[in-house]
């Protein structure tokens, strides 16, 4: 694959702007012949690698049905997991135990959205999608200030993992800060009918702080009530700057721009500032944020890009990765990352549009007709993009030093960072202190970065050592906390200690609401407890362990367990050319 061809593919994609697309497949797959179901996440990451069998699944559509599902599970001593119709979480939080368990899907519990324009709130069924919530709010003249950037998530699912956008203003960027009430279904004694609804609001702080971010471990959320504000517009400009001093500027920038974030591309020495704040509701402008990464891609483009990336990986072509990163970046710059001044094109900054049209996006989710012309670029039905996503949450005092360390590592060889810059570089966002036990106790920085994941778990990746060193720097040197909805297992090691008292309070509440551990599984325990599993050959390649011996890497392919280059305590799998070993 030559770079001009790649470039062409991107242009091709921009020109044809497909309107037909195929929405993602439902996450629960059943084979009626074999009488057997499995669940996967939206990336299909669990399918072949370590499938997640589902002994039984129900689709309640009302609170009564949800209640009776939990009651029958209690009667039959079944374990329960709840999943949305989207299943967009990376860790296996929604996998039920392989036997004696019930999966509750909220895919059909998604029809009620009630806006209260007197109290400025919206109350929704757990499975309602984010897009429907923000659209309904706006139709009533209200806005939800915070949202994750991806609209393909349910309300209960997104708050359960602490999902967020970016802001240090008001209640901040995390959506669970806007929750004012919830209804949670928990197991109960026989004389209470085996299950009951617990009503939760700020008057019962223990429940309120525990349940808002609870990864489905306390019970099944039935309804969520969010507080809203009078409708407003957003005013967005992307500014391209050198990355020389951004670590000294962001605190000030967050004060000036309510929804500020930074996309940092280390290999390009570039920091893209999102200058983004409110505009009055009557400001002119009907812009849309149709983020380029969440647009439907022609199947062919996704496959070609994956094919190219794979070829560069296999030939260890760092320069090629850098060319790819430069191409992707110039395409994004040209397209303003997908911002449009109207429904169709970008014609210049600032882009001003309604909050619901700017705060979150995901046009690849929607189809106008069932036509497999285009889909989300990571859709597992095609051999499209496949990547890891590491998301680390830092306290203010640690974040700057983390950035300086990453810069040191970058300066040793900037090209080593092209692999993350092919995706979105390091996306830096801001969330405010929260009283949720599994939320952040102080104002925090969140960093996301994506990188290539091989089709085969045993295949080492180009610059694997660099991503591992950054990952270990974040989570161990600087004590960052993992986003509950993303990351590889290694990010969760030691997580109980990082949350100290908060975790004790959460565990105590779980004992009260779910004394028999109905909502726990081996999978979710691995995340919540940060449990380390036995070290197998090659375990470090997929982030299942930190290597301590070469066999945890891939000696056969020339990858050995070595110390970090900047963070010496890190243990990473590094490729040594044959002359070196
Ligand atoms: C492309 C993409 C972009 C993303 N962007 C962002 C972002 O900008 N910011 C961010 O913070 N995150 C982001 N995420 C992560 C995403 O917001 C979370 O993974 C979210 O939890 C997914 O919601 P879901 O509805 O798919 O839930 P699921 O994956 O189905 O479930 C998530 C968790 O919620 C629990 N749960 C779901 N429904 C219920 C219920 N009714 N009762 C009890 N528990 C329940 C599940 O058991 C599980 O523990 C992104 C993910 C993707 C794939
Ligand atoms: C369903 O199960 C049957 C029997 O095990 C198997 O032959 C068939 O290939 C399966 N179908 C799919 C689509 O996996
Ligand atoms: C949009 O923001 C810019 C600063 O980034 C400001 O100069 C401009 O006045 C704003 N426009 C509106 C309508 O708020
Ligand atoms: C918006 O409304 C304010 C006050 O209601 C008014 O002063 C202003 O002129 C209006 N702006 C526009 C662009 O209509």
UniProtKB/TrEMBL annotation:
Keywords for this protein: Ascorbate biosynthesis, Oxidoreductase, Signal
Gene3D superfamilies in alphabetical order: 3.30.465.10, 3.30.70.2520
UniProt keyword annotation of Ribosomal protein present: no
Catalytic reaction list: L-gulono-1,4-lactone + O2 = L-ascorbate + H2O2 + H(+)
Gene Ontology terms: biological process: L-ascorbic acid biosynthetic process
Pathway(s) this gene product operates in, as recorded in its UniProt entry: Cofactor biosynthesis; L-ascorbate biosynthesis
Gene Ontology MF terms: D-arabinono-1,4-lactone oxidase activity; FAD binding; L-gulonolactone oxidase activity
Signal peptide boundaries: 1-21
A matching Pfam family: FAD_binding_4
UniProt similarity note: Belongs to the oxygen-dependent FAD-linked oxidoreductase family.
Name of the protein: L-gulonolactone oxidase
Species of provenance: Dendrobium nobile
Taxon lineage: Eukaryota, Viridiplantae, Streptophyta, Embryophyta, Tracheophyta
């Amino acid at each position: 694959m030559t770079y001009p061809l790649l470039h062409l593919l991107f242009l091709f994609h921009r020109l044809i702007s497909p309107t037909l697309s195929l929405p993602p497949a439902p996450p629960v797959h059943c084979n009626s012949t074999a009488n057997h179901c499995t669940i996967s996440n939206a990336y299909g990451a669990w399918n072949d690698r370590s499938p997640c069998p589902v002994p039984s699944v129900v689709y309640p559509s009302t609170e009564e049905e949800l209640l009776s599902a939990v009651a029958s599970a209690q009667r039959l001593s079944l374990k329960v997991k709840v999943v949305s119709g989207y299943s967009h979480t990376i860790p296996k939080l929604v996998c039920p135990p392989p036997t004696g368990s019930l999966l509750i899907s909220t895919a059909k519990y998604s029809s009620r959205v009630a806006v209260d324009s007197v109290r400025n709130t919206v109350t929704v069924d757990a499975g309602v999608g984010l897009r429907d919530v923000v659209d309904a709010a706006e139709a009533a003249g209200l806005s939800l200030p915070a949202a994750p950037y991806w609209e393909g998530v349910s309300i209960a699912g997104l708050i359960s993992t602490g999902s967020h956008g970016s802001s240090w203003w008001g209640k901040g960027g995390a959506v669970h800060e806007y929750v004012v009430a919830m209804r949670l279904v928990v197991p109960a004694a026989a004389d209470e009918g085996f299950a009951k609804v617990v009503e939760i609001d700020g008057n019962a702080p223990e429940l309120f702080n525990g349940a808002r971010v609870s990864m489905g471990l306390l019970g099944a959320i039935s309804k969520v009530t969010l507080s809203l504000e009078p409708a407003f517009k957003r005013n967005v400009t992307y500014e391209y700057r050198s990355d020389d001093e951004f670590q000294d500027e962001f605190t000030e920038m967050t004060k000036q721009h309510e929804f500020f974030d930074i996309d940092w591309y280390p290999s390009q020495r570039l920091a893209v500032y999102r200058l983004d704040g409110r505009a009055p509701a009557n400001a002119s402008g009907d812009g849309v944020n149709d983020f380029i990464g969440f647009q439907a891609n022609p199947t062919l483009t996704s496959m070609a890009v994956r094919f190219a990336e794979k070829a560069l990986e296999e030939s260890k072509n760092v320069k090629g990765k850098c060319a790819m990163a430069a191409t992707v970046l110039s395409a994004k710059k040209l397209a303003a990352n997908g911002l449009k001044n109207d429904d169709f094109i970008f014609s210049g900054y600032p882009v001003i549009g309604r909050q619901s049209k700017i705060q979150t996006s995901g046009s690849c989710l929607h189809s106008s007709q069932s036509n497999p012309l285009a889909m989300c670029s990571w859709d597992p039905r095609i051999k499209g993009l496949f990547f890891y996503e590491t998301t680390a949450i830092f306290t203010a005092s640690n974040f700057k030093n983390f950035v300086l360390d990453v810069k040191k590592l970058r300066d040793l060889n900037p090209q080593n960072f092209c692999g993350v810059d092919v995706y979105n570089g390091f996306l830096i966002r801001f969330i405010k202190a929260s009283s949720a036990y599994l939320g952040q106790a102080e104002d925090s920085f969140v960093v996301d970065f994506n990188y290539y994941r091989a089709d085969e778990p045993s295949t080492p990746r180009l610059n694997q050592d660099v991503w591992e060193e950054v990952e270990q720097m974040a989570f161990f040197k600087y004590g960052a906390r993992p986003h509950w909805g993303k990351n590889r297992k290694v990010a969760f090691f030691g997580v109980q200690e990082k949350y100290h008292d908060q975790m004790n309070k959460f565990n105590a509440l779980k004992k009260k609401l779910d004394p028999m551990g109905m909502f726990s599984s081996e999978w979710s325990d691995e995340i919540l407890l940060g449990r380390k599993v036995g070290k197998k050959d090659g375990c470090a390649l997929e982030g299942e362990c930190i290597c301590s011996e070469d066999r945890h890497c891939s000696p056969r392919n020339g990858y050995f367990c070595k110390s970090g280059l900047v963070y010496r305590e890190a243990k990473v799998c590094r490729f040594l050319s044959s002359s070196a070993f």
